[in-house]
């Protein structure tokens, strides 16, 4: 019996896979637990349409991420932190502060969780920071740390 999996299942396959199982296994385990559904012509067509829609949405998200990356890379942001004796910085710049500075200075939304700091920004100057906007898109942000 052919079954379309509705969720990932160990030893069977991933969501959306069409697998061949015995009729008893399908009737007594897969169908009652809603792990899969019978692979009828209607269900196969629905699966095909669903995959096409998911591909279209994924492509749109990729294009939006590329567009945002281009806009982020062309604009630098200035983050001000307090300085102590001898021009030393108090604390460091966090991803939350970088995201807030982009929102305030350029009106660009970026999730603080997507910004990756290789090291803490504890000194004044200009730094390049990577923002992973999409699994296939990474933007290089220019962050200037200045004394407030």
From TrEMBL:
UniProt key word Amino-acid biosynthesis: no
Domain of life: Bacteria
InterPro entries according to UniProt: Ribosomal_bL9, Ribosomal_bL9/RNase_H1_N, Ribosomal_bL9_bac/chp, Ribosomal_bL9_C, Ribosomal_bL9_C_sf, Ribosomal_bL9_N, Ribosomal_bL9_N_sf
Keywords assigned: Coiled coil, Ribonucleoprotein, Ribosomal protein, RNA-binding, rRNA-binding
Domain Ribosomal protein L9: 1-46
Coiled coil: 44-82
Start and end residues of each Large ribosomal subunit protein bL9 C-terminal domain: 63-146
Gene Ontology cellular component annotations, sorted alphabetically: ribonucleoprotein complex; ribosome
Gene Ontology MF terms: rRNA binding; structural constituent of ribosome
One GO BP annotation of this record: translation
Family listed: Belongs to the bacterial ribosomal protein bL9 family.
Biological function: Binds to the 23S rRNA.
Protein name listed in UniProt: Large ribosomal subunit protein bL9
UniProt source species: Acetatifactor muris
């Amino acid at each position: 019996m052919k079954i379309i999996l509705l969720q990932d299942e160990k030893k069977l396959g991933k969501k959306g896979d069409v697998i061949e199982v015995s009729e008893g296994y399908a009737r007594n385990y897969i169908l009652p637990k809603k792990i899969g559904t019978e692979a009828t012509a209607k269900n196969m067509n629905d699966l095909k349409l669903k995959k096409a829609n998911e591909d279209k949405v994924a492509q749109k998200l990729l294009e939006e991420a590329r567009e945002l990356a281009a806009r982020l890379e062309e604009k630098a942001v200035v983050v001000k932190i307090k300085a102590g004796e001898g021009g030393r910085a108090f604390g460091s710049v966090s991803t939350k502060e970088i995201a807030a500075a982009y929102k305030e200075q350029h009106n660009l939304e970026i999730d603080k969780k997507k910004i990756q700091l290789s090291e803490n920004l504890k000194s004044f100057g200009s730094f390049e920071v990577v923002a992973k906007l999409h699994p296939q898109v990474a933007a290089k942000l220019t962050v200037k740390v200045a004394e407030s």
